[in-house]
Amino acid sequence: MKRFEIFFGLIKIPFDFIMTMLAFLAAYELRLITEPIKGIAKPIDLSVLPTLREYLQFSANLALVLVVIFAIGKMYTLKTTHKWSTEAKKIFSQVAIWGMFILSYFFFTHTFPFSRLAIAYSWVLTLLFILLGRGIIKMIQRSFLKNGIGRRHLVFIGNNSITDELYAELKKDPSYKILGLIGESKRSSLVKVLGSTEEIEKILKRRNIDEIIQTKTGLNEMQSGEILQLCDIHHINYRFIPNLMEVRRSNISIETFGSIPIISINPTPLDGWGKVLKRGTDVFGALFGIILLSPILLATAIAIKIDSKGPILFTKLDDGSPVKRIGQRGNPFKHYKFRSMHPNTDNLRYTKLASQNTRKGPLVKIKDDPRVTNVGRFIRKFSIDELPQLWNVLVGNMSLVGPRPHLPEEVANYQKHHHFVLTIKPGLTGIPQTSGRSDLDFEDEVRLDRFYIENWSLLLDIKLILKTIFVVLKGHQE
Length: 478
Description:
Blueprint: H1 3-10, H2 12-34, H3 52-72, H4 84-109, H5 116-146, E1 152-157, H6 161-171, E2 176-182, H7 197-206, E3 211-214, H8 221-234, E4 237-240, E5 252-257, E6 260-265, H9 273-292, H10 294-307, E7 324-326, E8 332-334, H11 374-381, H12 389-395, E9 399-401, H13 408-411, E10 427-429, H14 442-454, H15 458-474
Parallel strand pairs: 1-2, 1-3, 3-4, 9-10
Antiparallel strand pairs: 4-6, 5-6, 7-8
Helix pairs in contact: 2-3, 2-5, 3-4, 4-5, 7-8, 9-12, 10-11
């Protein structure tokens, strides 16, 4: 999901809260204005008139209740392409439920507001203000979209009547920019390319594509699988018309454009609110970890400095270039670890020590590595050398849980299906690290990482973090 969509999805929460508070303030003033008008309002009993502070506190509580009701009613979905009429209907129904909650609260608590008319004003004004607020958000969003900011770049695979209908529907939607059609086409505005998987991959590399919709019929299982794999590798949202192929994943969603239902295959639940929830957990966990483990961090830094010459952190390669790892979507980032080896020995793994590599696949592991210092051997055994990566988690390069970050030269040797692990941010720990650590074959590691990506949940993260603590305390012999 694009950051543009996440931003406009999240901003609805404070907007709704603020608009509800403004509605209550307006209702308060409106009740005072209408108080002298005969036939509209009865005189207010000044003895029960709340202070402005009390009224604001009461209003804030009810505004929070409305936000919760909206959240339960899925009013904060991060998908921002819903029609305004659909959103307005949902707002009306959820505000109606909120109004019934307020009446039920006063009925069961036997408490009464200073003015029933003020509550009625509040309900009406809240509905109007929230519609106004959502309308403002929608207008700002559409303004950005019309200027090409935040639009999803879309390509069709196939050319038939369904393609024509979808093209007509989505062309009117400013959220999408249709880059073309992979396949033969009579429309000059679309790309005319024959749809072999080799040609499709060339297009994906050449263009910044966010989404593919497959409408082409007659694809065999191998062709469909190849297209799906390409989408995994290039981190593209894959959608298709139902009944074209067997769906083999549980992370699917169905959306209708016109009269055509489209199935989206989502590579991970870590999108939308899942992404927001995981990021919040990462920030809290990284801060807590840095504070809690600060004595160990300090003691390790001193021990490294005393034990051998060189920097405390391993941040530069033998040639002086910064140490980097490959993160989400293949983006490199600066990576931090405590130095556990003698300086200027990193590249020996590819030269003098290459014959001692014990791992299959793109990764390198040297058993009884002579480059490791005395302190380095200890901190590696208990994974203390990894603790500076809490900073990577805090700044957003990594996550507490996820696939391990690999070196650029290792990723360069990935096979196609290995690139799926780059779908999400790399992590400090993960299923492979709690199921054998570096003793696992690389293919087994990828298989476990893929399971995590496709089946993520907050509960799974918590379990893996707790399991990691026990694994680390037990120690591991290199």
